[in-house]
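Researcher: Good morning. I'm working through a list of sequences from a screen, and I'd like to move beyond sequence-only analysis. For each chain I'm collecting a predicted structure so we can compare shapes side by side. This is the next one on the list. No need for commentary yet; just the structure.
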Amino acid sequence: MVDVLVVCTGNICRSPMGEALLRAHLTDAGVDATVHSAGTLAWGGAATTTAVAAIRERGLTLDEHESRALTASMIEDADLVLAMTRDHVGRVVALVPPAGDRTFLVGELARLGLAVGPRPSDETVRAWTARVSATRPHERVVGRGDDEVPDPIGEPLEVYRAIAARLDRDLAVVARLISGT
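Model: Good morning. Structure tokens for this chain:
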């Protein structure tokens, strides 16, 4: 079983959408996985109504989602941590420094993972992410600015739709790479 943690700020917009999308893609790829999410400043409560609507349009649901605060144990248990911004990556690594080689921006992992290639069936996700991390141009620089996913909080549904489409595209790539296909 693979454990994936998706992180954003409040755990009410981006990370719940990413969690639902990645869970669906990994299920479709036949990967036995637990996908969950948390926020660096979890605000408590449900996902925003616009996040719920954007995901519902993709045939998924956030109806049961409750915001959770990021903890060190969540990070330690995760084989892969996907973050929305460099700040989120920094907060993950500040809590659990050894998690740096398995913590990525969503777009960064899709981009670098494609260059490394799919995970072989005899390789753990942690070992694969370490190989991917080793291709970063500088060990202390995570991703590019365009790998970050902007916060849609307070924006109209069209912005949430665009964020959901971007996450869907990149997470489909991540799921294929993890599945080895």
